[in-house]
Amino acid sequence: MTLADDFANRSAPASACPACVVVPAAERIAALRAERSGRIVLSLPNAGGARSISLVEAALQSLPGVHSARVNLTQKRVSVEAEGHVTAAQLIAVLEGQGQEAHELDPGLLSTTETDRQGRELLMRLGVAFFSMMNVMLLSVAVWSGAEDATRDLFHWVSGAIALPTVIFAGQPFFKSAWASLRQGKLGMDVPISLALILASSISVYETAMSGHHAYFDAAVMLAFFLLLGRYLDHRTRAIARSAAEELAALEVPRAILILDGTEIETPIADIHAGDTVLVRPGARMPVDGIVLHGASELDRSLLTGESLPVPAGQGTVVSAGEVNLTGPLTVQVTAAGKDSSLHRMADLVAVAEGTKTRYTSLADRASRLYSPLVHILSFSAFGYWMWATGGDLRYAINISAAVLIITCPCALGLAVPAVITSASGRLFRKGLLIKHGTALERLAEVDTVVFDKTGTLTLGTPELVALTDHPTEAVAIAAAVAAGSSHPLARALAEGAKAAGIAPAQVTDIHEVPGQGIEGTYNGTRVRLGRADWCGADALEATATYLSIASPTATPSASPPPRGEGMGVGGSASKQTHAFQFTDRPRPGAAEAVTRLQAAGLQVELLSGDAEAPVRDLAQRLGIKDWQAGVLPTEKAARIAELSAKGRKVLMVGDGLNDTAALAAAHVSISPASALDAARVASDIVLLGQDMAPIADAVRISRQATRRMIENFLISGGYNVIAVPLALIGHATPLAAALAMSLSSITVSLNAMRLK
C-alpha cells in the first residue's frame, strides 16, 4: 500500500472508484501548496544604512516569483511578498550571496508587534498634549504679564478652547481606567488622576465665566502631558521586550516536511495531524511526537532531558518534538503535533507554577494601595474644612480642594517605576539581557539562591575533545580525516580538536556515513571506522555510542576505556585495533565568572542536571559549585525549587530545556538563553541573548540598583508631598502652582532614574 493509499483510507470513506480514493490526498496537496504563497518575513541582524536596504531589496526582487521586498531598518527585518514556489531557504541563500545574514521568522507570531495600536495611540495623545501645553502656556504668559478685564477673559477663553478638547482626548486612558476601577469598587491610581483633570478643567471654566483673575487650563494640560509621558514610558518598556521576545520565538518556524502520495511538502505544524507521515532530515529539529517508521540515526535530546550524549534511533524508536536528528533521515509517523505534542503538554505544569508569579505585588501597586485613599481623604477634608471656615464659600473651598488633589496627583509616583525600568532595561539589553516581565527586575533584586541547569545553559551543549596527546599522531590524523565527513557533534569536535593541535588529516578515501553507526573510509587499502564502539569492533570497550573508537594498521591499541567524559573511536576491520577519544561538554563563555561573582555577592549557587554523574561532577568542580545533583528529572527540578521556596529562599532559575520549563515557571524569577527551547523561553522572565553568561551577575547587581532607585523615587515623591501638601491645605498654593510643583517632582524622578545609565 502506498502512502497516498494509506492517507486516503484514513481520511475518506470507501469508494467504488479507485481513482477517487486518491482525490482527497491530491486536494490536500494542492491546498497546502496554495497556502504557502504569501508573505515571508526574514530577520536581518546585521542590516544597517540606506545602501544595505537597497542591496537587500534589489537582490530579493531579482528572484523569479518575488513580487516585492520591503526592509524595515528599525526592526531589522525584510517582508517579502512572493508566489508559492518561493521558499525562505531560497531568499536566505540569495542574501548570503550578498554577505547578509538572514533568518526566517514566523509572520503569525509578529502580528501583535507590527500592529502596536496601543503604543501609537499613547504617542498620538502625548503629542497632542505637548502641542496644547506649549500653546496654552504662551497664552498664560500674556495673562501673567498683566492682561486685565476683557483681554484676560479672551486669553482664558482661547486657552479653554485648546485645553478642554485636549483633556477630553488625552485623558481617555485615565478616564477609562478610573471608571473600570470604580465599577469594581476600587480606588486605583487613575481615580485621583481623573478627578484632578476634571476639577482643574471645571474650575477653570467657572473662573473664566465669572471673569475671575485665575484660570488653570495650563495646569490641566500640563498634568495630562506628564501623566501620559509616564504611561508611554511604561508601555514602551513592555512593548520592546514583547517585540524582541516574539522575534526570538518566531525564529523557530513551526514547519514539517509532510509526505503525501510520495510528494514532500513543507507544511505548517497546524496542518499536521496524528497518523500523518513526516520526513525529518539530518540536522533538523523533530517537529512532532511520533514513531520512526524508516531510517537510522542518532538524536540529540539535550534540550529535553539534559543528556549531553546523542542516543541511537531506528525503526520503532519513539521520538518527541524538540529533539534534534543528527546523522540520517528519519520517516516518522505522527502520534501528536502542535498543541497536542509533548512540548505543549508541559504548558499545563507551567501554568500552575506561573500562578505564583502573578500574585507578586510590585512596589508601585503596594504604594498605590496606600496612596490613592490618602489623596482623596486629604482633598475632601480640605473641601469640608474650608466650607466651614469660610462660611460656605463654595468657590474658595473647591479651589483649595483641587489644589490639594493636583499637588498630590500621583504623577511622580506613576513615573517612579516606569522611568527606572526603562533605564535599567536599556542598560541590560546592551549587555545582552532582555527583560520580558514587568516585575522581573524587582523579583531579581530579591534573590538569594541561584539554580543552574547544565547542558545548554552552563555549557554550550557541544562537545570538546580532551586528552588528545594520549593518542599517536597517525591515529588522530586518520580520525580527523574520517570525522570531516560527518556532521555528528562528536565527529565535528574531533576534527576541530585535531586542527587546533596542528595535526593534518590523513589521506582517507571512500568516506561515507552509516546512519546511526558512524563513518567509514579507506586508509592505505584498509577499511577504518569512526563511530559506535560495537560497530567499530571495540570489544574491550563498553559497546555504547558513548565511545568513538579508531583503529588503523599502524595504530597502537588503547588498553582501557577512558575514565570519564564522552567519546568515540576508530576501528579497522583487519586489525581490530582501537582508540577511545574523550570528550567533555564545553562550558559557556563567562560561566566561571558568573558563578564566582554570584557567590561573591552572597548568593547560594546550585547545579541540577539530568545528565550523568561524571560530566556533572566534572563541570561543578571546574566552576567551583559545591552543591550539585545529577540525573534529576523535570519534576524533581520543580520539586527542588518548591522546597527552597518553602524555606523562604528567593530562587533564580537558569535553564534552557523542556526539562527545565516547570522549574523556570516555579522559580521566583528565571532566565533562559536565546538558544533555549521555545517553551523554556516562554516560561522565563529574562532572556540571555548572547552566549556569554557573565551578564547574569550584572543583572543581579543592576536589579538591586534599580530597586534602590525606585525606592528613592518614592521617597522623592513623598518628600515633595510632605512640603507641598500643607501649603495647599492652608490655601497658599493655587492649582497652577500645584501643577508646576508636580511637574518639578516628575522631572526630578526622571533624572534620578537616568542615573542608572
CATH class category label of the domain at 422-460 and 588-701:
Alpha Beta
Termini separation comes to: 68 Å
Assembly state here? single chain
Q: CATH superfamily of the domain at 422-460 and 588-701, called what?
A: HAD superfamily/HAD-like
Question: Which class of secondary structure composition applies to the elements?
Answer: alpha+beta
What is the general shape? elongated
SS field, number of helical segments? 27
Q: What's the CATH architecture of the domain at 422-460 and 588-701?
A: 3-Layer(aba) Sandwich
Low-confidence stretches: 1-23, 111-115, 244-253, 347-358, 540-548, 551-567
Radius of gyration: 33 Å
**Beta-strand residue fraction:** 15-25%
CATH topology name of the domain at 422-460 and 588-701:
Rossmann fold
Mean pLDDT: 75
| Helical residue percent band | 40-55%
Sheet with most strands: strand arrangement = 14-27-26-25-15-23-24
The count of DSSP E runs of length 2 or more, i.e. the number of strands, is 27
Q: Biggest sheet, in brief? A: 7 strands, mixed
